[in-house]
Design goal:
heterodimer, A: alpha+beta, 13-stranded antiparallel β-sheet, globular, B: mainly beta, six-stranded antiparallel barrel, six-stranded antiparallel β-barrel, 33% strand
Chain lengths: 642, 346
């Protein structure tokens, strides 16, 4: 009798829990419940139907890019998301710590593909892997996570509890519960979640490394952890995703195959009531100190974001890689304000202890799995003890470099052919020119990456010709037509040009950069040496992948390329945008004599990518010292067959 | 009504820009992010004393413009200082005004103007299938002026429970609103359950967990109960800030405990006074008292303390083990006419 009473008392709760089970994962049921209670008009149902349509369309569009990641033995795994058709995929560092440096990846098509590690970021729990044996892979794009608001819908996808037999991802719908969250890490500077997104979408073990999408199908985060306490490792309604913007910041470091480190100003900030955030300690030998940051300076803005608490500063700093050019707006105790820009130093990781060498025990084939695991441990130990910000894997780096070049060419539909002629007025130029003087510059480019650059001089015209990877220059007393100039062999007395000439002549650098932007794979002149990816950076205020190459004189050339192909600002753009050449410079921070060139407002003219303007900049702050407005010569664009 | 809900739903899904004809019939077409943002100012973070594995923090809702806060009752309020952090990050010391061990709620007061607060409206009722937003500082994720977390769910069932077989399972009795989002987390108690038109439909309750299945109920205390409690109108056992009955008369049940086993011995009933409340309620000698008002009574000492806390005229629920059965016996103690002695039994 007592039992019956108890049951009756518990019954409502039991019924509710059963109801809950039926409703979880299918919020439409609640719509249904509402409909069941009171009849709805056709119009209302049409709205609901459209909403559902929108959601299922978004899911269908992106589900193919979600990866089920397994280790070699397929014992365990996590999730990931393909961000490039070449098979580059993001996942968590802690997923590859478990799975190793290679394994198998399952996609929604039900097939398994081998994957290999490209690089990892233990500090931010990110890793970049490469899926192989197919191309193009379905890829999703990174949205702008700064625009994510609490209350926005969030779709988590992945392989929770590694339960998908056919690798088809699980979708869990929820809302964003919090933004700009900070979840502290483990060990020395590892697995810190700064400025991350908190969701009530179910995040369970196995979801790690999988994408968090908005309803437009853009990746807003990489799911990586959840709040667990007293309940075991299952979802309790608080999941955390690394913001897509942080992932984008680290793309360059990961593509470069670096052991990515996070940045620090080598200074700390504390909250002081009524006085704001003050610098409470600083390493006097740090770049920040050299740039003018002092004790008791008040921090107003970090990277253009107004900050109000020291927590916010710590959280934001987590999203920035080592070497990142970081701008601080500070207020001195006397009230004067100052802007400081420095490259961040790196936060070190604890060096892992290498496992002792495995004694060889011949004739034991059943130990293959154990041996594989030990090898894996060794590989991970090597990975974590690598020198930070150094290319670990040249082949993988060059694979990623080729991907960048392909993405600069867009979808490949518009391969530029014929001749394009550009003209610009140059107020500031190389040595010897008078300040304020202008001169005409005409650039003619052929479909194969050959070019002819003519600049106005006091005596006549200086001609630079790049033909079949050979650079020469000569004086002329008349302007040549682009067509004939490109075809014509250089005069015998023409000077051959080396990298030093390129460094001295910004027009020539601009011309070469323009050619490289349009023929990234073919037009890398040998004067520049072999290019490789050199990590994450910013150029012209945008997130960039930095490339560098060592010229014949053992000096570096740098180029900065945008991440446009992998990211998307607008939720409506359906096609991928090409990556743009943002900047070229003969030194890292353009503080040499020659400065750097920033390219702006690229547009398509007759299949060619053309910047509307070229800016000559100096220093880490990219102070503009000159601007050239570029215009295609009327009637000549893309008509090279005449 | 349903029409209204569907349109609200449409807004939540972010297509209110499509402006369906029926949208004009409904005013609160607020998008979810805007709504949550608007509500943040009405939530507070509360920090108190820690004890063992009991969290020293919780959430609270402002219910007046002069700093009245409803939060969860708990030992964290027993510390030397209870601190309330408003949404703007300002820190205030709170006074505990009232607690209720049945509702498991407490009323705090801070000396500050609080322009953002929830009106404890009479018509704010959660119905089955309604969308609701839960807001709390579960897991103390938010610090200082950082906004508290938000969850979206639906009302699974408005119902009531009073099963009190084990105080660890259920520390709450009465009407409640069950929801399908996970609200039963450390620090979430005292948070808000809000309808999509921004009305408080409940205050998130303390964790109720089955010790057998490890499952938890995700629920909120309905607003009408909260309102009565805040207004001091509740018929349930209300206590003052000290946790004692204050000027209320101590209650006498007529239960006599078996004291020969020592203070650490089991709390068996030795005898029941003839004509007492306990006799009317059906207590028998040799019943083993398991819990009093949800508080576990593991030995004679704790049992005597709990019985001594009972207030005349206010119903208490005592669970006894009789043979192999657990029997739940409501009893209303009568006034003894004498002041309570500290720690003394009846």
């Amino acid at each position: 009798m007592v039992e019956a009473t108890c049951l009756r008392r518990w019954l409502p709760a039991v019924v509710a829990v059963l109801g809950l089970l039926a409703l979880v994962g299918s919020p439409d049921c609640s719509v249904f419940a509402a409909v069941l209670q009171e009849p709805a008009g056709d119009e209302d149902l049409a709205i609901v139907a459209r909403i559902e349509q929108q959601r299922s369309t978004a899911i269908r569009a992106v589900i193919g890019s979600v990866v089920a990641i397994y280790d070699q033995g397929r014992q365990g795994g996590g999730s990931g998301v393909v961000i490039d058709p070449s098979g580059l995929a993001l996942t968590n560092h802690h997923v590859i710590m478990g799975a190793g440096v290679s394994g198998m990846a399952g996609l929604a098509d039900g097939k398994l593909y081998p994957w290999e590690l490209i690089a990892t970021d233990p500090g931010g729990d990110l890793a970049l892997i490469r899926l192989k044996n197919a191309s193009p892979f379905p890829a999703s794009r990174l949205g702008n996570s700064d625009r994510v608001r609490v209350g926005d819908w969030a779709l988590a996808m992945g392989n929770p509890f590694v339960l998908a037999e056919d690798h088809v991802p699980t979708v869990t719908l929820g809302i964003v519960s919090g933004v700009r969250r900070y979840q502290e890490g483990a060990g020395l500077n590892q697995l810190v979640y700064g400025n991350c997104i908190q969701v009530d979408s179910s995040i369970n073990p196995g979801n790690s490394g999988g994408p968090l999408f908005d309803l437009a199908g853009l990746i807003i985060g990489i799911n990586g952890r959840a709040s667990f306490l007293e309940r075991g490792r299952v979802n309790v309604g608080l999941g955390y995703a690394i913001s897509s913007n942080q992932s984008r910041n680290f793309l360059g470091d990961l593509m470069a195959t670096f052991l990515a480190q996070h940045g620090t100003l080598d200074a700390s900030f504390s909250d002081y009531t009524d006085r704001g955030i003050l610098c409470s300690s600083i390493n006097e030998y740090s770049d920040a100190a050299k740039a003018g940051l002092e004790l008791a300076d008040r921090l107003l803005e970090l990277e253009g974001v107004p900050v109000e608490t020291a927590n916010e500063v710590a959280s934001l700093m987590c999203t920035l890689p080592r070497g990142w050019p970081t701008t601080l707006r500070i207020q001195k105790p006397d009230g004067t304000e100052k802007t400081v820009t420095v490259r961040l130093s790196g936060l070190p990781y604890q060096q892992p202890q290498e496992p002792p060498p495995v004694p060889e025990t011949p004739g034991q084939e059943d130990d293959a799995e154990k041996k594989r695991q030990e090898e894996n441990q060794l590989a991970m130990a090597r990975l974590l003890s690598a020198t930070p910000s150094t290319v670990r894997d040249v082949a993988a780096n060059h694979f990623c470099r080729d991907v960048v070049w392909q993405r600069m060419a867009g979808d490949g539909a518009d391969i530029p052919t014929g001749i394009l002629e550009l003209e610009w007025e140059a107020p500031v130029t190389s040595d010897g020119d008078q300040a304020g003087a202008t001169k005409k510059v005409v650039l003619s480019v052929g479909g194969e990456g050959d070019f002819l650059l003519q600049t106005e001089t006091a005596e006549g015209v200086r001609v630079f010709q790049g033909r079949e990877k050979t650079l020469v220059s000569w004086e002329s007393n008349e302007w040549m037509s682009g067509n004939s100039g490109l075809q014509q062999a250089a005069p015998d007395d023409a000077d051959s040009l080396d990298s030093g000439d390129i460094r001295r002549e910004p027009h020539l650098l601009a011309a070469l950069a323009f050619v490289a932007a349009n023929h990234p794979q073919d037009a890398w002149f040998p004067q520049f040496g072999t290019a490789s990816i050199d990590g994450s950076d910013q150029a012209d205020g945008q997130v960039a992948i930095r490339l560098k190459s060592l010229d014949a004189d053992q000096d570096w050339f740098y180029a900065w390329v945008s991440t446009d192909f992998w990211s998307c600002e607008s939720s409506h753009a359906q096609s991928h945008n090409p990556c743009r050449l943002l900047k070229v410079a003969p030194d890292l921070d353009s503080d040499g004599r020659s400065g750097g060139l920033v390219f702006r407002d690229w547009q398509t003219v007759g299949g060619w990518q053309v910047p509307a303007s070229i800016r000559l900049v100096r220093g880490i702050t990219e102070e503009v010292v000159g601007q050239w407005n570029v215009r295609p010569v009327t009637g000549k664009a893309g008509v090279g067959d005449e | 009504m349903c029409c209204a809900r569907l349109v609200l739903l449409a807004c939540v899904w972010g297509i209110c820009c499509a402006a369906p004809a029926s949208a004009q019939q409904v005013t609160p077409d607020e998008e979810l992010p805007a709504l949550i943002d608007r509500l943040q100012g009405r939530l507070v973070k509360i920090f108190g004393a820690g004890a063992g594995n009991v969290q020293a923090y919780s959430s609270g809702v402002l219910v007046s413009d002069d700093g009245t806060i409803v939060t969860a009752q708990g030992v964290y309020l027993d510390g030397a200082r209870t601190v309330v952090v408003l949404a703007d990050g300002t820190v205030h010391t709170a006074t505990v005004m009232r607690r209720d061990r049945v509702l498991q709620l407490a009323v705090l007061k801070i000396e500050a103007e609080t322009p953002h607060w929830f009106d404890l409206e009479a018509d704010a009722v959660a119905r089955q299938g309604d969308w609701v937003i839960a807001m709390s500082n579960a897991f103390r994720v938010a610090d200082k002026q950082e906004p508290v977390s938000a969850w979206l769910g639906i009302v699974s069932l408005p119902t009531s429970i009073d099963a009190r077989l084990n105080s660890r399972d259920v520390a709450y009795s009465g009407a409640l609103v069950l929801v399908d989002s996970i609200t039963s987390n450390p620090g979430a108690a005292g948070g808000a359950l809000v309808s999509l038109d921004g009305k408080l439909v409940g205050v998130i309750g303390k964790i109720i967990e089955s010790s057998e299945t490890n499952t938890r109920l995700n629920y909120a205390v309905p607003t009408d109960l909260v309102r009565d409690f805040v207004a001091g109108k509740t018929e349930l056992a209300a206590e003052d800030a000290s946790g004692n009955a204050g000027t209320q008369l101590p209650g006498e049940t007529g239960i006599r405990l078996f004291e020969l086993g020592g203070k650490s011995g089991p709390a068996y009933i030795d005898s029941v006074v003839a004509g007492s409340a306990a006799e009317a309620a059906g207590f028998l000698p040799d019943d083993l008292i398991i819990s009093v008002n949800g508080e576990k009574t593991g030995n004679l000492r704790t049992c005597a303390t709990e019985l001594a806390r009972l207030v005349a005229g206010q119903e208490a629920v005592i669970v006894v083990k009789r043979g192999r059965e657990l029997v739940r016996l409501p009893v209303t103690p009568r006034a003894t006419g004498k002041r309570r002695e500290a720690g003394g039994d009846q």
